Amino acid sequence: MNRESSWQSRHATKPWYRWMMFATVVTGTFMVNIDSSIMNVAIPVLEREFHTGPEVLQWVISAYLLVITGILPVIGTLSDRLNRKVIFIVGVSVFTFGSVLCAFSNSVEELILFRVVQSIGGSIIMGNVMSIVSYIFPAGQRGRPLGLIGSVVAAGTIVGPSLGGIFISLYGWRSIFWVNVPVGILSVAASIFLLIPIRSDKLPRKFDTIGSILFFVGIVSLMLVISEGQSWGWTNPRILAAVVLSVVALAVFLKHEFNFESPVIELTLFRSRAFALGNLAGYLSYIMMMMPGFILPLYMHDVLDISTAHMGLLLTPQAISMILFSPVGGWIADKYGANWPATLGLALATVGLGMMALLNSSSSYVAIVVALSVFGLGMGVFTSPNNVSVLESAPVEKSGLTGSLMAAVRNFGRVSGVALAVLFLQASGSNLNSSAGFARASSFAFSIAVLIGFMGTSLTITRLFIRTKKVAITAGSRE
Question: Which CDD domains match (predicted)?
Fold first, then answer.
């Protein structure tokens, strides 16, 4: 073991070895993102298999997302205290084991429960990838790898549905979980032999159990309100109870965190304006990102009467643009700094949303493809520099928590984006059951999304005039 560690240490600073470690950790990221998108095509099959309606089956997806977001900051804090290599290996192992359990599910209740197991592993993976990358690549060289992580996420999103459709048609729905097993085993083996031990130099402090529970209850309740408010009704007793629970839990959480010696979330990180503005801009960008994914399929089906097969092809330019331009955004960030490309990227994404707002009942396929390509280009250029800006505004020993918070913001933004898309469509006042009415409603929704884009772009412009300063985390900083 010592000989192996010595070999790793000798090569750890060499560029080729850094990229081997990078490939090892993004294998886990790719697996998690494939599994996230692959479930969407399985829902109709599961409906027939378990004779269960969509109101129950939605929890196969929702439970996964809720648990991941609720425990990500906790995972990040634990990673900052322990060996990130070991934590990452545990995450991939738990995710792989959860996949096996899902494949053996005999009821929808079992499947939901095992998806929760899977989500725990997924959160450990998501909460460690950017942290590990920030350790193995020095400052000024993180843009490219972080940009490639964006490409891997987009690639997983593209591959997931098509791969799921092929596996389900050939081998049944259980095969979409079995496919994770060889990938998980490969990732664990590579992590054991290639990753260097990554530990914090600081002595571990008392773990914030109460804060972890309060955050989980508060954020899960809030996400439940946002995701289910439209379908359950905003005055439904369950929604009102969730609102009260969320407000109380998060209020108590904030008070507790300011007074606890070693909180689960270092709120002092938000004293850095670059950190706070970067996370807020990231949240708005993920709201923007969900708008086309939710509204355009409905627009293409209800207004343009496009077939499902063609619809899938027309939606791919956004993801392809993100795959191509995420590394470009990272390279620009390494070369010229993070704030300029982040501003340019979000501005371009806003232009893309503006082009979507101009779509009507007579728009061509070309108009849709161009709008999505511009939007994907902008998001690709924005995401990596924004991630670099946030990571480099926090102490490196808190990179686990920082990466986890960024992943939680991403999930929270996605849930908010879908809920707001529905709200904007309904707020348009148009008849959503007619093609002309839905065309007007989608134009209205994209116009509001443009305003969100202006807000995000304004925040990134503000960062151009802020000097990035890392916040020192000390026990006395909260006193």
Answer: MFS_MMR_MDR_like (cd17321)
13 φ/ψ angles, rounded to the nearest 5 degrees: -90, 0
Q: In which domain, by residue range, is 226 found?
A: 209-259
**Which of 205, 223, 206 lies closest to 215 in space, CA to CA?**
223
User: What does the pLDDT profile of the chain (479 residues) look like in tens digits?
Assistant: 455 555 566 666 677 788 888 888 888 888 887 877 677 667 778 888 888 876 677 788 778 878 888 888 888 777 777 788 889 999 999 999 999 999 999 999 999 999 999 999 998 998 888 778 878 888 777 777 877 776 777 677 666 766 777 888 888 889 989 988 998 999 999 988 888 877 765 555 677 788 888 988 998 888 888 777 777 888 899 999 999 999 999 999 988 888 887 777 777 788 888 888 989 999 999 899 888 877 888 888 888 888 766 776 787 888 888 888 888 888 888 888 888 899 999 999 999 999 999 999 999 999 999 999 999 999 989 988 888 888 778 776 676 677 777 877 887 887 788 778 888 888 888 888 888 898 999 999 999 999 999 999 999 998 877 665 555 554 444 43
Q: Tell me: do 164 and 234 sit in the same domain.
A: no
Q: How far apart are CA 190 and CA 193, in angstroms?
A: 5
DSSP label of 470: P
Within 13 Å, how many C-alpha atoms sit on residue 13's CB side? 3
Neighbouring C-beta atoms of residue 255, cutoff 10 Å: 11
Asked whether 22 and 133 are in contact (CB, 8 A), the reply is: yes
The Cα 465–Cα 107 span in angstroms is 56
Same domain, residue pair 430 and 289? yes
Q: Which residues contact 365 (CB under 8 A, 6 or more apart)?
A: 314
Which segments of 172-307 does DSSP mark as H helices, in order?
175-178, 180-194, 209-232, 237-259, 273-302
Tell me, yes or no, whether 302 and 189 share the same domain: no
Looking at the structure, tell me whether residues 2 and 88 fall in a common domain.
Answer: yes
Pair (231, 306) in one structural domain: no
Closest CA to 228 of 112, 55, 68, 111: 55
